[in-house]
Amino acid sequence: MKDRFGREIDYLRISITDRCNLRCVYCMPENGIVQIPHKEILTYDEIIRICRCMTDLGIRKIKLTGGEPLTRKGCATLVQMLKGLDGINKVTLTTNGVLLKDQIRSLFEAGIDDINISLDTLDASRFAQVTRRESLNQVLEGIEAALQYPAIGLKINCVPVLEEPENLAALAGLARQYPIHVRFIEMMPIGYGREFQFRGEEEICRILERAYGIMTPVTERYGNGPCHYYKIEGFQGKIGFISAMTHKFCDQCNRVRMTAEGYLKACLQYQTGTDLKSLMRSGCTDEELTEAIQKVIWEKPVSHHFTSVEAEADEERLMSQIGG
């Protein structure tokens, strides 16, 4: 399936819950959000129905997100169901890692391909400051547990919200110590992210090169999305950057997103999309559902305009509600 600008759309990100066990300062208020009633969240069967229609349109890769997806009961069951769909080549997961130690075996047995772990610091006090929870040890235990399953590709996703250069260098050092890719993601002006200044790729590269030496670009791709990578001599993993602000990659965008309520979005910045849950629960056929999905993909905007002075996101939902 291609959109009207010729981009091939083969990647779907699915939020399976708006609930989270952390309260990161750039994502959620300290007291949490007003949670979506459980009956308004898509069932796993509804998710599978949508994904089955999407495979007919060329979707081949699926990422499960939240909130925190591992807070939803039976996440591994959904992974197994998705892996059983004809046409799906890869099912991956983004998690904060707090619950990963207890669920990694079931995820492995379900066939998960890759796991991305969101982690912004290795310092316990700074972790508590960013997440408003004292859970760093559980995250590190989750990483150690996941490393016992080398068939699962592991990545660390860092939003560089802390100012200390040594914090970024320490996180990057995980790629030297382990076969893990460490990726730095520029802050997006969505929800509470509007209150923070993003740090650009060039600044972070300077910090890391001072700590570890020359970073050499590589052409290999190590995931579903637009991340580009560098290698550092002596490192087992690569250093990656998802730089939506300073290195805009909309012309290569291959994804659409679906919220936990079943709202299909073609672009992070805009509220435009289609309520697939209402369609299904009103009795639509698979052909009607597929047509609605196809329309969203075809009408995908040419780009975001976060960097335009006059433009602001019209999306009012928080990142935890959208699916990141």
UniProtKB/TrEMBL annotation:
<dbReference type="InterPro" id="IPR058240">
    <property type="entry name" value="rSAM_sf"/>
</dbReference>
<dbReference type="InterPro" id="IPR000385">
    <property type="entry name" value="MoaA_NifB_PqqE_Fe-S-bd_CS"/>
</dbReference>
<feature type="binding site">
    <location>
        <position position="26"/>
    </location>
    <ligand>
        <name>S-adenosyl-L-methionine</name>
    </ligand>
</feature>
<feature type="binding site">
    <location>
        <position position="24"/>
    </location>
    <ligand>
        <name>[4Fe-4S] cluster 1</name>
    </ligand>
</feature>
<keyword id="KW-0547">Nucleotide-binding</keyword>
<comment type="similarity">
    <text>Belongs to the radical SAM superfamily. MoaA family.</text>
</comment>
<feature type="binding site">
    <location>
        <position position="27"/>
    </location>
    <ligand>
        <name>[4Fe-4S] cluster 1</name>
    </ligand>
</feature>
<dbReference type="Pfam" id="PF06463">
    <property type="entry name" value="Mob_synth_C"/>
</dbReference>
<feature type="binding site">
    <location>
        <position position="20"/>
    </location>
    <ligand>
        <name>[4Fe-4S] cluster 1</name>
    </ligand>
</feature>
<keyword id="KW-0411">Iron-sulfur</keyword>
<dbReference type="InterPro" id="IPR013785">
    <property type="entry name" value="Aldolase_TIM"/>
</dbReference>
<keyword id="KW-0342">GTP-binding</keyword>
<feature type="binding site">
    <location>
        <position position="250"/>
    </location>
    <ligand>
        <name>[4Fe-4S] cluster 2</name>
    </ligand>
</feature>
<feature type="binding site">
    <location>
        <position position="188"/>
    </location>
    <ligand>
        <name>S-adenosyl-L-methionine</name>
    </ligand>
</feature>
<keyword id="KW-0408">Iron</keyword>
<dbReference type="InterPro" id="IPR006638">
    <property type="entry name" value="Elp3/MiaA/NifB-like_rSAM"/>
</dbReference>
<comment type="subunit">
    <text>Monomer and homodimer.</text>
</comment>
<keyword id="KW-0479">Metal-binding</keyword>
<feature type="binding site">
    <location>
        <position position="253"/>
    </location>
    <ligand>
        <name>[4Fe-4S] cluster 2</name>
    </ligand>
</feature>
<dbReference type="InterPro" id="IPR050105">
    <property type="entry name" value="MoCo_biosynth_MoaA/MoaC"/>
</dbReference>
<feature type="binding site">
    <location>
        <position position="155"/>
    </location>
    <ligand>
        <name>GTP</name>
    </ligand>
</feature>
<feature type="domain" description="Radical SAM core">
    <location>
        <begin position="4"/>
        <end position="226"/>
    </location>
</feature>
<comment type="function">
    <text>Catalyzes the cyclization of GTP to (8S)-3',8-cyclo-7,8-dihydroguanosine 5'-triphosphate.</text>
</comment>
<feature type="binding site">
    <location>
        <begin position="255"/>
        <end position="257"/>
    </location>
    <ligand>
        <name>GTP</name>
    </ligand>
</feature>
<feature type="binding site">
    <location>
        <position position="67"/>
    </location>
    <ligand>
        <name>S-adenosyl-L-methionine</name>
    </ligand>
</feature>
<dbReference type="Pfam" id="PF04055">
    <property type="entry name" value="Radical_SAM"/>
</dbReference>
<feature type="binding site">
    <location>
        <position position="13"/>
    </location>
    <ligand>
        <name>GTP</name>
    </ligand>
</feature>
<keyword id="KW-0456">Lyase</keyword>
<protein>
    <recommendedName>
        <fullName>GTP 3',8-cyclase</fullName>
        <ecNumber>4.1.99.22</ecNumber>
    </recommendedName>
</protein>
<keyword id="KW-0949">S-adenosyl-L-methionine</keyword>
<dbReference type="InterPro" id="IPR010505">
    <property type="entry name" value="MoaA_twitch"/>
</dbReference>
<dbReference type="GO" id="GO:0061798">
    <property type="term" value="F:GTP 3',8'-cyclase activity"/>
</dbReference>
<comment type="pathway">
    <text>Cofactor biosynthesis; molybdopterin biosynthesis.</text>
</comment>
<keyword id="KW-0004">4Fe-4S</keyword>
<feature type="binding site">
    <location>
        <position position="94"/>
    </location>
    <ligand>
        <name>GTP</name>
    </ligand>
</feature>
<keyword id="KW-0501">Molybdenum cofactor biosynthesis</keyword>
<dbReference type="InterPro" id="IPR013483">
    <property type="entry name" value="MoaA"/>
</dbReference>
<feature type="binding site">
    <location>
        <position position="267"/>
    </location>
    <ligand>
        <name>[4Fe-4S] cluster 2</name>
    </ligand>
</feature>
<dbReference type="InterPro" id="IPR040064">
    <property type="entry name" value="MoaA-like"/>
</dbReference>
<feature type="binding site">
    <location>
        <position position="118"/>
    </location>
    <ligand>
        <name>S-adenosyl-L-methionine</name>
    </ligand>
</feature>
<dbReference type="InterPro" id="IPR007197">
    <property type="entry name" value="rSAM"/>
</dbReference>
